[in-house]
Amino acid sequence: MQGCASRRLRNGARSVLALEAESKQVFNLSQARVMLVDDTEIGLSILTQIVKGLGARNPVRCETLQQAQDAIAGDAIDLAIIDGFAGGGRGYELVRWIRTATQPPTCYMPILVTTGLARDEDVMRTRDSGGNIIIRKPISPATLLQRIVWVAKGGRQFLFAESYTGPDRRFRDRGPPSEGGRRKGEEGAIDLEGIE
Amino acid sequence: MSGPRFVTPELRLTKLIEEPGGLTVAEALANAAANLESIRPSCLAEITALLERAEAQFAEMGEAPDAAAVAELYGLVVGGIGGGEVSGTPGVDEALKSLSDLIDALRAGGAFDRAAVAVHLQAWRLLTITTPGEAARGEILSGLRAVVARYA
Prior knowledge:
The structure holds two protein chains of two kinds.
Chain A: E1 7-8, H1 11-14, E2 25-27, E3 34-37, H2 41-53, E4 60-62, H3 65-74, E5 79-83, H4 86-89, H5 91-101, E6 111-115, H6 120-129, E7 133-136, H7 141-152, E8 158-160, E9 165-167, H8 177-180, E10 189-191
Helix pairs in contact in A: 5-6
Chain B: E1 5-7, H1 12-16, E2 23-24, H2 25-38, H3 40-60, H4 67-80, H5 83-86, H6 92-109, H7 114-129, H8 134-149
Helix pairs in contact in B: 3-4, 3-7, 4-6, 6-7, 6-8, 7-8
């Protein structure tokens, strides 16, 4: 599985993940507890197959926001991937609930928000609810992997304030996207850092 | 709350992702692609079922449907976005995005154009059932964009 040429993601290097098909860089999601929230069978199936392919074992599949809340209450979640439109647009409320109604370390969990819509409104709702990154559907495995590694990098401050709780939006580490593409509007993904 | 407070959390994911074992990027992307290929037939069945639900919903809507009926249709359309690519029906995702843009624009304008919605549903069916070639697909999607542009 790991040849001599394999490179593990370490410190500064881990923020830049080569996504070429032949890349030997190694990462490990096998022990990560990944929660997937999408109220459409097709969306949940696609997401499940991608994250399993990326090495996550037994992702927690949630078709409703209540199932997601129960899963969070019952187990430590390391990464959440939430469809913002789930529950008729209430996926964003779930993100806000995680940020404001759960205790550390749960409230710090990295949250990727998926959406079939590309409206500015959705970007702003993701930002304001406390999501780390918004990813547009259709989701490509390469984009999802890159964003997972990016949020896993950590180091970003977390803000508790009266009007907002979530990742510091002023954080401007201009890391991995410059390696393979654009940042805002990048192939399917929008990093919310720096969007004021 | 007394005032803004910053913390720098340590994420368990940060440690887990560097644990021994795991996959190379190449292996992971190949696995994910193979997994998606394996669900292509079921995705096609689901996108077709979604189309039929949307058509049925539309058939029940009159010239001036209420907000709940429009929201129901909108939910079906948005729910299908992303399924086109995996189900091997190129163009379906774009058609669904176009339809969601159209409904957004119609809602903003406080009107409902039944013909504009109908042509999108017909395009969705055409792209799903017949999978036209690239040139024909481009013409279909171009036509949809022109319809939406009338309201954007």
